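Complex 273.
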Amino acid sequence: MTSSPGARRARFDHVSLGFDTPGGRLTVIDDVSYDIDEGEFVAVIGPSGCGKTTMLNMLAGFQAPTSGRVLFDGVPVSGPGPERGVIFQEYGVFPWLTVRDNIAFGLRLKANRVPAAERDEICSHYLALMGLSEFADAYPKHLSGGMRQRLAIARAYAVRPRFLLMDEPFGALDAQTRIHMQNLLLHVLAAERKSVMLITHSVEEAVFLASRVVVVTARPARVKDIVEVPFGYPRTEQLRERREFAELRAHVGRLVMDEYKATTPAQSFVPAD
Ligand SMILES: Nc1ncnc2c1ncn2[C@@H]1O[C@H](COP(=O)(O)OP(=O)(O)OP(=O)(O)O)[C@@H](O)[C@H]1O
Ligand SMILES: [Mg+2]
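Predicted structure with magnesium ion bound:
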C-alpha cells in the first residue's frame, strides 16, 4: 500500500470503532488500514461526519479503537505524546494566556522544555512567521477568528513535533490566508523534517500539499482509495497551474463527490445489544 522508502511512523491496522449512542450503536470507522511513513504527508478527505476527526483522535491518543490496532513507531498508541503535535478542528488556544505565552506554553512543558532565551527566540520566530508579532501581548479574545487559528498553528509548530496531526487547520481562514498558510506549512516542512496527517475538505489543498491522499467513504469510514500524488517537493504556486495538477484534482474530486452523494447516515445505526 505504501511506496515511500521512509520508515513506517504510523499505522492504522484493520481499525474499527463504534460509539454507543441513544439511537443505538454507531459504527464510525470500519476496517481501516493505511500507513504514514517517515517524512510522508498524508491527507485524509471525506464527507462531513464520516469519522475523520475520530481517526485523528486515535493516532493522537485521545480515543482507543474498538478493534484493530493504531501503531506509532510500531507501538500501540496508548495516549498523547510530545512527538505528536495536534492542531484541533476548533481553535486550540488558551484564552487566559497572551499570544506569546500561548506559543510558549508547549515549550514550558517538561517534555519539550527549552531555556528561556531559546524559548523567546522560538516564540518570536513563529510570531513573525504567522504575522502575529504586533499582537504578542494581546489575548486571544482580541484576535479575529483567522488570527486565533494562526495562533493555534504557531503553538503546534513551536514545539517542533516530529509528527503533525492537523484537523482542518486552515478551514476557518479566508482564501488568501489559506494559500499563504499552505505555503508556510511547506516551508516549515522543508526546514524541519516531519510526517503529517492532514484532514481537509479541500481537494485542492490535499493534492497541493500531500504525497498521498486517503479518500474515505461516507460513514462508516472505510478507505475508498489511496491516491499517490507524484509531484516532488519543494512545491510552489506554479504547481497549481499545471495540467497534471488539474487532472489529479479532478480525479480526487470525483472520488470525493461520489461519497458526498452516497451519504446515508441512517444505515450506520444498528440496535444496541
Ligand atoms: N464521543 C462520541 N460519542 C458518540 N458519537 C460520536 C462521538 N464522537 C464522534 N461521534 C460521531 O462519530 C461520527 C464521526 O465524527 P467525526 O467528528 O469523526 O466526523 P468528521 O469526519 O471529522 O466530520 P467533519 O468533517 O464534520 O469534522 C459522527 O457521526 C459523530 O456524531
Ligand atoms: Mg472533523
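Residues 98 and 139 are 4 Å apart (CA to CA).
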